[in-house]
Amino acid sequence: MSHSRGLCRPEGMRIAIAGGTGMLGRQTAEELRGRGHDVRVLSRHAPEYRVDLTTGDGLAEALEGCDAVVDASNSRSPKQAEQILVEGSRRLLAAEESAGVGHHVCVSIVGCDQLPFGYYRSKAEQERVVESARVPWTVVRATQFHELLAMGFAAVGRTRVLPVPRARLQTVACAEVARVVADVVEGGPRRGRVEVTGPETADLRVLARRWRAITGRKALVVPLALPGALGRALRSGVATSDRADVRGTVRFDDWLRAQTTTGKGNGR
Ligand SMILES: NC(=O)c1ccc[n+]([C@@H]2O[C@H](COP(=O)([O-])OP(=O)(O)OC[C@H]3O[C@@H](n4cnc5c(N)ncnc54)[C@H](OP(=O)(O)O)[C@@H]3O)[C@@H](O)[C@H]2O)c1
Predict the structure, then answer these.
(1) Is the dihedral of CA 166, 169, 172, 174 positive or negative?
(2) Which CATH topology does 5-261 take?
(3) Residue of minimum CA distance from atom 44 in ligand 1
(4) Atom of ligand 1 nearest to the CA of 126
(5) CB 28 within 8 A of CB 72
């Protein structure tokens, strides 16, 4: 099978989304289906295409006849990050090569190579695996999603105390990232990176106070000192970018207000 299917059939492509049941994967699947593509959702608990990236089970069948693959899988546990993101990418790319997939889109994180913390190290290593693959690829680097922050604040704030470190972030609505990922899939492999960020840079403590005001939660925001290299990196703004290829337009506050008025609570 040719390695250029993704470029030859920009409309009506067959696209597999690894992690298609997750926060970004779901919205990417919806976006691509809305554009007329044939989308397969792959994950350990997906109804049709059950795959496990830690073993490779199910990948060969799931990728048969696919033009492109979006890797939106993730590990909620830092301990499994290496297995799912790094080794999982190797397994996924090997299966793609056998199936003749023409484009691998890896979703990554702005500044992951400058954040000295286990999970981000695995993301940076995942990028290196993808960038040295034989399957044509694109890496989409996004900043943290508004959804992630809202969920984090809600979970920690249940105790009515919200310890928050200083961190410069540029959060973005997951739906805006899903649109960029869909554009990248349709555009074909770049063998390069595309960066997508939110419209504003703000300190995490400011965002926590805005979250409290908009949701009406009673949690007390208290400063948390994050010592060491990770704290310094977050304060210095390595997780933000002023040279993004795409800058989202939906601000955290507006996104949160829309969630609150539609009763979606914390965005998931
Ligand atoms: N969340 C953010 O703020 C953010 C920001 C920038 C970039 N990103 C990147 O975007 C990607 C998606 O993140 P997300 O937050 O949307 O993830 P998520 O909601 O945690 O979803 C993770 C997905 O991975 C699947 N998965 C987990 N373990 C698996 C395994 N062993 N085999 C196959 N599938 C597995 C899960 O489904 P099952 O449990 O059914 O297997 C689920 O569909 C990640 O690469 C992340 O680094 C996220």
Answers:
(1) negative
(2) Rossmann fold (3.40.50)
(3) 74
(4) 45
(5) yes
Please, are residues 76 and 19 in contact by the beta-carbon 8 Å criterion?
Answer: no
Token pair, residue 252, equals: 């955290």
Question: What are the CA-CA distances from residue 138 to residues 79, 236, 254 (Å)?
Answer: 26, 27, 30
Domain boundaries along the sequence of the chain = 5-261
pLDDT at 3 over 60: no
Q: Give, for ligand 1, the residue of 23, 61, 74 to mutate: max count of ligand atoms closer than 8 Å to Cβ.
A: 74
Contact in structure between 50 and 19 (CB atoms under 8 Å): no
- The protein residue with its alpha carbon nearest to ligand 1, atom 18, reads 22
Task: Convert the pLDDT of each residue in 172-216 to its tens digit.
Answer: 999 999 999 999 999 999 999 999 999 999 999 999 999 999 999
State in Å: Cα 84 to ligand 1 middle. 9
Q: Which residue has the tokens 């889109």?
A: 105
